[in-house]
Amino acid sequence: MARKPIRICTLFAALALMASACGGEETTVTPQTVVVTSVVTVTETSIITETVTETVTETVEVEVEKENPLAGKTVTVFGPESSDTEAGAHQAALDIFAAQNDMTIVYTGERSFSDLINAQAAGGNPPDIAVFPQPGKIADFAREGWLLPIPSDVQETMDDNIGAAWNAFGNVDGVQYAIPTKADLKSLVWYRPADFTANGYAVPTTWADLKSLSQQMIDDGNTPWCIGIESGGATGWAFTDWVEDLTLRYQGADFYDQWVDHSIPFNTPEMNGIWNEILALWNTPGAVYAEGGTISSTFFGDNGRPLVEGDCMMHRQASFFSAFFPEDTSFGPDGVDVFYFPSVEGDRPVLGAGTLVSAFRDAPEVWAVMEYYATPEYADNRQRFQNLAQGGGAVLSGFLSPNTNADLDLYQPLEQSFLDILFTAEVVRFDGSDLMPAAVGAGSFWTEATSAVNGDKTVEEATQAIEDSWP
Amino acid sequence: MVGILNTVINLLTAAGIGAGAAFLIYRGGRRSVTRRAVAALSGVVLGAASLWGVIAVEKLETTARGVVVSIAASALIFIAANKLFDLTPDRWSVFTTLMGGGGAFLVYAMLWGNRAIDDPVLRTAAATLIGAAAGYLLGTVDGKRARLAIGTGAGAALGALAASGMRRVILIFEREEGPLELWPVLPNLDYGVLIGLTLAGAALGLLSRLVRRRRTALVRPVILWASVGFFIGAWCLPTLGTGTKAEALAAAIVTGAGFGAVLGLKPIPDAQHRGRIEVASRAYIFLLPALGFIAATLIVPTLRTLFLSFHDTHGREFVGGINYRDIFTSSNIFDAAGWPGIFTSRLFIAGAALVLIGLLAAVLAGRRSGYLMSLSPGTAGAAGLGVFLVATAAFAALRGTVFNNLWWVFTVTIIATAAGLAIAVLADRAKWESLAKSLIFMPMAISFVGAGVIWRFMYLARDVSKPQTGVLNTLWVGIGNLSLSRGPGFFLTVIVILAAAALLVRLAVRAWRADERTVGVGAAVCALPLIWFAFALWRGIGGFEVRDNGDVVASTIQFVQRSPFNNVWLMLVLIWIQTGFTMVIFSAAIKAVPADLLEAAEVDGASESQTFWRVVIPQIAPTIGVVVTTLIVLVMKVFDIVKVMTNGNFDTQVIANEMWQRAFTELNFGLGSALAVVLFAAVLPILYLNIRRMQKAAA
Fold first, then answer.
1. Cross-chain CB nearest to A293 (options B176, B558, B665)
2. Is A465 within 8 Å of B331 when comparing Cβ atoms?
3. Which of A56, A348, B168, B677 has the fewest beta carbons under 10 Å from its own?
């Protein structure tokens, strides 16, 4: 039975062999295990009769006779990193792997990633691999059945290279769906030490110090903060980072965890107090330099240049922000430096974030790329290229790898200290809005925060609306 | 092989483009040697350029291939279908033979393509032969019993042929080397359901015949519908794949015999009937592809959206009307709490005063002429403006997505229509008419997204300590500086403005004396803001702010951020685009007003404004109707501008963007679909009106 298709298949195989013969390259025929694995699953799970098994096995034989499993294949990757620096380095790191395997990997970066990936996945037209900045979204997608679990061999590579704490963010209901590829340290304030010494300011070590420093700057006629929360479809996220950082500082890690998983309502007096605290600081006359006229219309990435040019004294933003400073910016005591966003109680908690990759298509080439993401080679290539894209040498690349086997020599001392903080701080929490369900973490939290910052709503109205929108 | 094909297609594309261009140029005017040379040269250049483009750009080659192949395939299908039906009047048996063979081939090719049968080549060939033979016999044999036997037999044979080679499962490859998926084929018959559906089908056939009161030939529709019922019961409902070969055989033979019997029961049509078949078939040949397209791209998605709107966020569980309830209970979407604010706003008071003044003047004028009230353009204009202001005050106080959308519809429709009409009238027969109209029409060529980006730059504000870069804020801050400077520029500006105002006043006085009252009042009204502006400039106006300590700092307008009037600034973008559209349509309509009507009005001594209001406007009323309804539908669906400029933040959300955010940002497909249905339902009646008006206008 079913002889015709097999004949056609063999014909194709013969053609492929002829083609390779014409190419004149002697390639060893390596059996491919991935397809065989999927056949086994099929046999186990489906209502199978002998006919099927026969057909499938024969198909497999054809598959096996292909020479280089990855050659000529194309893998598409889609992610939120869209600046020339980040997207360029990402693509370059992928290109190396692609060149080694004679395949094509295309990375596309888009600021409105979180909107578009939903439309793509729901519409049945997802990329092969997506770079998620939000573990909450990975959970949503995995429960929709859109993501593929990571095969055991890829997971082994991942476990060998990346710490369990980070891998846990890609784990949904006990199944691993994603691999961490980037780490960000969020509790940082960027400033220029030269400005501080010239004015006689000291780096604040407590939240109260920070507030009084801010006031002192206003009194001296300086503008303390550069703030902007505009970010396309994700407008508002920069405010949520402040909320998360201060929640960790005022209420502690336990409260934070309960707040994130919604065992504590969103609109408790504690949370409203934190929102009010931030808005009071931001809305003090003279406190904020907003490049775009108002905080809510200033693109978050547009805060680098004003800081360098002295329009403001401080900017609270994650470690990746170094990629948003003008190209010739020097980092360190002589240029732009960072200090730790001070804590209230002195417990020095740290807010982190990052990206994870997850796959939509079950194919050997996709899993090969996924496995590459888990290796120190990807981490090192990415860091090397991103450093170059920033000008090379002693610059901050804006990239930090969660890969524990990454080459630390590729990082500047400041970056090494970031990594050190991320991996050793006692209290480290992932960005809360990224962990919440999409309706909140990528929806109402952002939009209501924008409303509150813009003064369209009171804090109480905004947090109530977020609470109501929790699915 | 593929390479050669590609080259051929590339050459064909390039030759087609080049020849088309040459032909257009050649035909464009007087045919001379120069024109011929120019045409040939442009054809060659354009052809070469497109050949280079198609080869150099990878995507273009794929696109060109797709276009050429699909055009060729559609053309072939069209021609073949038309040729086939050409046969009906004179060579009926040839037609039935081809139809029988082709029909059987299509069904078997489908089974073959889905890998549902073994030995597909052999079986398809056999089936084609059986079908063709049956077609030939049915086209020639006359005897009733013989026809029935032929039809039933051939149908049963075809069914048996398929079922005997039917595989138990089909393999479906999701994508190249993607996960394997298996679809079982053999039906597991549920006899109760099967008999029920067959009987239901038979009853339906009986009913259809009785309703149409044609009691003749009852048997055919009954068998037809019974067969349809049986087919659904046997092949569409049961859990496929767990059945046996015997069941498949039974199901296939009965289905085939049923449909075959229907064909056999039909007598050979007479010459008149054949002619009718030929005529009717043309319509279907040309309609079917379009209808298939509409069904796949419009009707199916609409039904699916309706389905989703009654289900939960993932479209799995039925939740009733909860999504619709959520729309009208969410304060972000529907918030009427601010309604008392309507009556205290300055806009409302000014609008209400205008309405009162307009009506009062109309009543006074009516007393003179003996009517209850007599609306002149002036009084009606004042009252209309008043109503517009009152409505704006209401929309500014009622917040939420739904009211924003209504506000868009109201404002954009009215202003774009009025401005388009005004420009069309004023530019009519004026000097430089076509240039002015082209300029105003030009924004139509810009996409909504592009316009949104452009206007974002227009509205841009920077930190007040920096020079402004947005055009409007630069102007605003510039006026502030001018107003504060009291230098020569300031005095010059004031003098120029006052001079312009004086000219307008002079015009008003003259027009009033010449009994052109409307023009006089209009000029006077236009002079007022100029005088006010000069006065305001003197007092201090523009983008600055005096701090408590006496420092003067720049102050910008947050066009896009300040609610609720940021909505109006966004609407301006759409008005900017759409005014060109309305202007062009109105311009054409005005030019189509018969000249004798206008001459008759002139002979009767009507003034320009009387001619306009009483002759031109009634003549173009149907056009106004079409333009207004088209605009309403377009504005109701506004999305791009809001998405680009604010993404619905700052109280500017509209239904279409809300739908996008709910469905695709928050993955709440239930609520998103419900919003889509609401939008659809709101657009539908207006669309209906629009189509009816257009049909009337065409008639």
1. B558
2. yes
3. A348
Whether a cis peptide bond, with omega within 30° of 0, leads into B488 is no
- Asked, for residue A425, whether it belongs to a domain, the answer is no
Contact B649/A447, CB-based, under 8 Å? Answer: yes
Confidence check on the interface: ipTM exceeds 0.95, yes or no: no
- B465: alpha, beta or left? (left if phi > 0; alpha if psi -120 to 50): alpha
Residue range of the domain that includes A47 = 3-64
- What element of type H or E holds B183? strand B180-184
Asked if A294's CB is within 8 angstroms of B558's CB, the reply is yes
C-beta atoms of B666 and A443 within 8 A: yes
Q: Which CATH class is domain B345-698?
A: mainly alpha
Q: Is residue A47 very low, low, confident or very high in pLDDT (cuts 50, 70, 90)?
A: very low
Residue-wise pLDDT for B624-644, tens only, equals: 988 998 999 999 999 999 999
**Domain total of chain A:** 3
What's the pLDDT score for residue A67?
A: 60
Other CB atoms within a 10 A radius of the CB of residue B356 amount to 13
Output the pLDDT for position A388: 85
In this prediction, the residues of chain B whose per-residue pLDDT falls under 70 are 1-3, 29, 58-59, 169-185, 213-217, 237-242, 697-699
Determine the Cα–Cα distance for residues B181 and B171; give it in Å rounded to an integer.
Answer: 6
State the CATH number of the domain containing residue A241.
3.40.190.10
Residue A466, token pair as written in the block: 């977020």
Residues of chain A contacting B332 with CB distance shorter than 8 Å: 465
> Nearest CA to CA, how far is A361 from chain B (Å)?
7
Read out DSSP for B607-672? -HHHHIIIIIHHHHHHHHHHHHHHHHHHHHT--HHHHHHTTTTTTT--HHHHHHIIIIIS--HHHH
Portion 454-473 of B in contact with A at CB < 8 A? 460-466, 473
| Contacting residues for A16 by C-beta, under 8 A, at least 6 apart | A65, A66, A67
- Encode pLDDT of A153-173 as tens digits: 999 999 999 988 889 889 998
